[in-house]
Specification:
The protein is of the alpha/beta class and 660 residues long. The protein has 21 helices and 34 strands. Among the domains are: 20-99, no CATH class; 103-112 and 128-312, ANL, N-terminal domain (Rossmann fold); 533-659, ANL, C-terminal domain (GMP Synthetase, Chain A, domain 3, 2-Layer Sandwich). It is globular, with a radius of gyration of 24 Å.
Length: 660
């Protein structure tokens, strides 16, 4: 029995005007491509987005080379061939003859244009023009080079979302170095689980950070990890929470480090397209985090495509995403500099006071506002109506990711934030440092759906027999190579872990692990992770289908739903945290079950509902369904350092005895 479709063809919440479509960069790129095809005497002519998409996945080499030229990527020639081993996944090589530098492409903006605006929860603000940013990057790069850093060496950041974080990353990558980062709320073992695997040459940190009105110290953690990150050459400390932090041997202040390179000339080491740029870490709770290596060219080209064609980002736009440096959205955000946009950075609590991010959006005239589905739901529950209380005239795009955006959250944005705005729920991940499915300024926004598959991404949904299907739930896969695939995992020379992670299920096909549904019009619905799909009575149910109903209840703060093996079947168990002043009584349980039955199906109704003090989450904010499911089945939960609140698991351990 399938769940109900809450997002039919008539649920269009926003439709771009003919003028908006004509002026979009998607249309400009389509026209550019048609001219290129015409000059090559091709018989192909692309009339609309659907034809552009189909061409991009049938002719990927032509698509990515046209995109390179359209976006004005700075580097040595594209060359020919554009791609080698297109039949292999993994194993494809893109632009094998090109040479480029990521930082060089991000630092092309006009001297006096603002490159970065930073603000924290205390209201502290600083700004950098592109000229100032280039000077600071040059000084930091000079100091790194004096420390012996060469192309391929790793520099790691244990930092808040600061301007200095962007500077350190750009300086590292200007030299061909490899950057990796995590947020300062990680514990000692969580940091070491990540950074010790990649043996960094330099660690950049802050003395602390602010969150929820409190100052948190970072240097104690740094002192504990320094000696265990051998052969670490230096630790550079940003003075953020105090004017003069207490530095110990091996530490140098950020300002002192810059002084050593003041006035240096900014130079860029151009490297191969597949040269490592970022090392990203999985946020799972089984074993050590996977170290995914993303390339210079693949990251840059993919982000340019997503920013310009799918979001409409232009030079001088004010580009915001609420993120930490431990989430891939930070890497995605900073690439906005390649479009000469202004990065709007924020560090701190997003809801204390509740409208703080909307205040920031109004005062700095945001054009793009990116956040998580959880934040949008929290704004709705808090009764915020930014469209009435704030001037959001400049806002043209709202982005949401982290988990599926509930249809009711779509309603909230258009009712309480802004009617004339492109709302894009986007989905991809750290694994590809980008999106498989995302927004589009030339297509309508349909309630509860992601607008389209990304250009150049042959995304399909496979049924239980491994056949592509439409209007049926199944596995989200990508059946052709794309530029932002990881070049591999760190210390995985035969690609054993890499292949096992994505290519074990289907040969030569990327299996992403999302439970999804492709609609006839090309839009998609993400129903949750496929490894946490519920299976009562043999019916596959995505957890997002239950969350969207539960989150409508004003009493509910957060929830996690899992399937528990029971007898010869699977039963659904729902755990809730409630808002202050509410308790889980029989009446609330009855109303929850009735609402789930009405809006979904009888199969969706939880057999057990329990109130818990807290829901376990990763440090990047994602609910950890697998950890809860493992506990209920008596299985271990490894890598607890990946959790923001590992203490929350103890209550589930007690419940497991009761529910066994």
């Amino acid at each position: 029995m399938a769940g109900k479709d809450h997002s039919g063809n008539n649920d269009i919440l926003w439709q771009p005007s003919a003028e908006q479509v004509a002026a979009s960069q998607v249309s400009q790129f389509r026209n550019f491509t048609n001219e290129k095809l015409s000059s090559s005497r091709s018989s192909v002519f692309l009339n609309n987005y659907d034809e552009l998409y189909q061409w991009s996945v049938v002719e990927p080499a032509l698509f990515w080379s046209c995109l390179w030229e359209f976006c004005g990527v700075v580097g040595d020639g594209v060359g020919s061939p554009v791609v080698e081993n297109l039949h292999l996944m993994p194993g494809t090589r893109w632009f094998p003859q090109s040479r480029l530098n990521y930082a060089e492409n991000l630092l092309q903006g006009p001297d006096q244009a603002e490159a970065i605006v930073f603000r924290n929860e205390r209201g502290d603000t600083n700004r950098r023009t592109f000229f100032q940013l280039r000077q600071e990057v040059a000084a930091f790069a000079h100091a790194l080079k004096a420390d012996g850093l060469v192309a391929g060496d790793r520099v790691v950041g244990f930092l808040p979302n600061l301007t200095e974080t962007v500077v350190a990353m750009l300086a590292t990558t200007s030299l061909g170095g490899v950057w990796s980062s995590c947020s300062p709320d990680f514990g000692v073992e969580g940091v070491l689980d990540r950074f010790s695997q990649i043996k960094p040459a330099v660690l950049v940190c802050a003395d602390g950070y602010f969150y929820g009105g409190r100052k948190h110290d970072s240097l104690e953690t740094v002192r504990l990890i320094q000696d265990r990150l051998a052969p670490l050459k230096r630790t550079v400390v940003v003075s953020y929470t105090s004017a003069q932090p207490e530095l110990t041997p091996g530490m140098t202040s950020y300002d002192q480090y810059l002084e050593s390179g003041f006035g240096a000339e900014l130079k860029f080491e151009r490297v191969s397209f597949d040269h490592p740029l970022f090392i990203m870490f999985s946020s799972g709770t089984t074993g050590l985090p996977k170290c995914m290596v993303h390339s210079v060219g693949g990251t840059l080209l993919q982000h340019l495509k997503e920013h310009r064609l799918h979001c409409g980002l232009q030079s001088n736009d004010r580009f915001f995403y609420f993120t930490t440096c431990g989430w891939m959205m930070w890497n995605w955000l900073v690439s906005g500099l390649a479009s000469s946009a202004t990065l709007m950075l924020y560090d701190g609590h997003p809801l204390r006071p509740e409208p703080i991010l909307w205040d920031y959006a109004q005062e700095e005239k945001f054009n793009i506002f990116g956040t998580s589905a959880k934040y949008i739901a929290a704004c709705e529950k808090a009764g915020l109506k930014p469209g009435e209380t704030h001037d959001l005239e400049n806002l043209y795009c709202v982005l949401s990711t982290g988990s599926p955006l509930a249809p009711e959250s779509f309603d909230y944005i258009y009712e309480a934030v802004k009617k004339n705005v492109q709302l894009s729920s986007i989905s991809g991940g750290t694994d590809i440092i980008s999106c498989f499915v995302l927004g589009n300024p030339v297509l309508p926004v349909r309630r509860g759906r992601l607008q389209c598959r990304g250009l150049g991404m042959k995304v399909e949904v496979f049924d239980s027999h491994g056949r592509d299907t439409v209007d049926e739930k199944g596995e989200l896969v990508c059946t052709r190579p794309f530029v932002s695939m990881p070049t591999g995992f760190w210390n995985d020379p035969e690609d054993e872990r890499y292949k096992k992670a994505y290519f074990d299920r289907y040969e030569n096909i990327w299996c992403h692990g999302d439970f999804a549904e492709l609609k006839k019009d090309g839009s998609m619905i993400i129903h949750g992770r496929s490894d946490t799909v519920l299976n009562p009575g043999g019916v596959r149910i995505g957890t997002a289908e239950i969350y969207r109903v539960v989150e409508q209840f004003e009493e509910v703060l957060e929830s996690v739903v899992v399937g528990q093996n029971f007898g010869d079947d699977v039963r659904i168990v729902l755990f809730l945290t409630l808002r202050e002043g509410f308790t889980l009584d029989d009446d609330l349980k009855k109303r929850l079950r009735l609402k789930i039955r009405e809006e979904e199906t009888p199969r969706h109704v939880p057999a057990i509902i329990r109130q818990v003090p807290a829901i376990p989450r990763t440090i990047s904010g994602k609910i950890v369904e697998l950890a809860v499911r493992n506990i209920l089945h008596g299985l271990p939960v490894e890598n607890r350092e990946a959790l923001a609140n590992p203490e929350s698991l103890s209550y589930f351990s007690e419940l497991a005895k009761e529910l066994s």
